[in-house]
Amino acid sequence: MREEIAEVVGFELDDPRVEMVTVTEVSVSDDLRDAKVYVLVDGSEDEVKKALRALQNAATFVRQQVAMNLSMRFAPHLHFVRDSAEENASRISSILSDLTNKGEINQKEIGDE
What we know:
Blueprint: H1 2-12, E1 21-28, E2 34-41, H2 45-57, H3 59-69, E3 77-82, H4 84-101, H5 107-112
Parallel strand pairs: 2-3
Antiparallel strand pairs: 1-2
Helix pairs in contact: 1-3
């Protein structure tokens, strides 16, 4: 389902606000009625908000396309949410790199942990 949603969002939505969106994960509820679609958006905070709003507005279209492409009689309602896990990992990596470059920690200390 993740691949199919990513395909629809990446190639079938004609909205410049979602050009920098990457679908990272899809979590479907036990009753199969709802799905959280985790997305990573490259851009400023304002661009992230606009992209999430655009995705939520397009959720019905994406749902219909996914149901049709996967031959599903019913598809879950899609709820797009920001995936902050990868952003946090990237931020931590950047901080460690800065500290290493400044000589405050060395690369060996990072590898030992």
